# Entry
Amino acid sequence: MGDKQNTMDTLIWVLTAIGLGAGLAMDACAVSMSNGLANPKMKLGKVFTIAGFFGVFQIIMPIFGYLAVTVLSAALGEKFTTIFSYLVPWIALILLLILGIKMLIEGIKEGKNNKKEKDNTEETVKNLTIRGLFIQAIATSIDALSVGVIYGNVVPLKAYLTFLIVGIVTFGISVAAVFIGKKFGTIFSNKATIAGGIILCAIGLEIFFTHWNDVVAGINAIFNLF
# Structure
């Protein structure tokens, strides 16, 4: 009876971790799709690089959150963790808006160039730099910091294995999303870049407003200082 219960508990834990990974991966999925949209000729190696970045950061961020609540809170007090949670939505909003607006401008410029050069049928392939990918990975995974905080009362081994599953799920979803984006990117050309920019801005706003309680609490905390 005890073995059956342990097996059931393990199964529930794994399914929960997979579901958590799928939920957290939605931001990375949308950004991966936008990268595919803007890069219809992207090679397989780059597809896996993008997915790898998102998967790895989806593991790292919860670990930071976990360490913040278990180690830093013990050393610096609960006030540190509270202030950090207030900053999460602002960081995601600013980073994704910067990236999204930049992509929108590039898409509009590309459209104007295509009108001037109608005889030029060669597609423009965007080159996503490591720096840009690094920023994307941070922005889309920063939401996972809160997961690490939630798992603060879980034993380390179980917590870290959960974060690993989240990263693996994110990797798989991101690979599929890039391929979907590539297909539509070939059809829509420069409009794909504009769509990708809109997606990035929308994700930033979505993260910001889904954490509205933290935003309000942070603003109230600032006003209470004066």
Notes: The CA atoms of residues 220 and 226 lie 10 Å apart. Residues 117-125 have pLDDT under 50 and may be disordered. Helices lie at 2-38, 44-76, 78-116, 130-141, 145-150, 156-188, 190-210, 212-224.
